[in-house]
Amino acid sequence: MFNEAKKLIDKSNNIYVVGHIGPDGDSIGAAFGMCLALRKMGKNANVIMQQCSDSFKFLPYINEAKKNVEEESYDLLVCVDSSSNDRLDMLKEDYDKAKSILMIDHHKKVNPYGDVNCIVEDLPAASEIVYDLLRAMEIEIDKDIGTYIYTGIMTDTGSFNYASTKPSTLIAAAYLVEIGVDFGSICDKLNHTLKEPKLKLIAKAIDNMEVYYGGKLRYSYVSYEDINRLGVEEEDAEGMTNYLRMPEGTEISVYVRGKSDGTNKVSMRSGGNVDVSKIAIHFGGGGHVRAAGYTMRDDLEIEKQKLIEIIGGRV
Ligand code: AMP
Ligand code: MN
Ligand code: MN
Fold it and tell me: pLDDT tens across 69-111, in order?
């Protein structure tokens, strides 16, 4: 599967790597892991990223990310962790400057794009595909590259807890630990450290919880005004579904948050009996069986009722 990707990389010199808007650990891990590996191959490679949560700022070189492409054109754009090209964290005009596009992703196929696709829906993280690609290309994974790949795998598997975790995932993680990745510190920074405003947002999201269908669905909404008032950065206002799904008997948890642009971002998690990616795709988004999302662009109450109804037909 990686032959075509290797050919494309071999013939390219000026390369940009991009993940999805509102980058999570996997998007950041796959993008920077790939970029650092490309530099090791002697390529002129850079990551395009608009902004990310402060919680990732401990990662090496993270502040080197560029916001735009300065050149008129470039050889290759590597897109990671984004199932459609309208969610890439870059300007459309910069996307159009690429001579070739390589897509590396693990979401349900929605709108594959680009010249070469490395899509493995079975793997829990795009970062694990990057790991496989680098191993297949016999590129040495050093500690910095490994730190990014480990971050991507750890965050998208809920620290190896989700059912999406494969034996190959654990083997990759073991390899990364063996080459010196400081997994304890990554876990501490991303799982056990947060800013006080975020803790208050968690309390707010739990307080706003609404319960439907005898507890099978738990829903919470936090407005942009509340997020802003609490002093939480927009990129950091995530992760509430993990708490909402904790009460026994919960099948689906939904967290909706207001965004500064007036739209509402929907995050869904499922215990596995309901495929939430189908619901997300129905509303124009995407994701996986157990984790999916989309953007609500119309009136919140109307959109909310539509969502609750569609979930009611499935739980
Ligand atoms: P999140 O709840 O933001 O962690 O997202 C859960 C999963 O759904 C991730 O794999 C996302 O890539 C995917 N996802 C979230 N929002 C969207 C969207 N608007 N379009 C496509 N996929 C999405
Ligand atoms: Mn992601
Ligand atoms: Mn991912």
Answer: 999 999 999 999 999 999 999 999 999 999 999 999 999 987 8
Cα 153 → chain centroid: 10
Ligand 1 atom, smallest distance to 267 CA: 2
Class of the domain covering 196-312 = alpha beta
Q: Which residue, by CA, sits nearest to atom 22 of ligand 1?
A: 286
Rounded distance between C-alpha atoms, residue 81 and residue 88, angstroms: 9
Instruction: Please tell me the residue having the least CA distance from ligand 1 atom 13.
Output: 287
What are 266's strand-pairing partners? 256, 294
| pLDDT tens figures, 229-270 | 999 999 999 999 999 999 999 999 999 999 999 999 999 999
In one-letter notation, the amino acid at residue 222 is: V
- The hierarchical CATH code for the domain 2-191 is 3.90.1640.10
Q: Looking at residue 78, what is its pLDDT?
A: 99
| CATH 3.10.310.30 domain locations along the chain | 196-312
Q: How far is CA 2 from CA 8, 31, 45, 116, 159, in A?
A: 10, 17, 19, 9, 27
What are the residue ranges of CATH 3.90.1640.10 in the chain?
2-191
Length of the chain measured in residues? 315
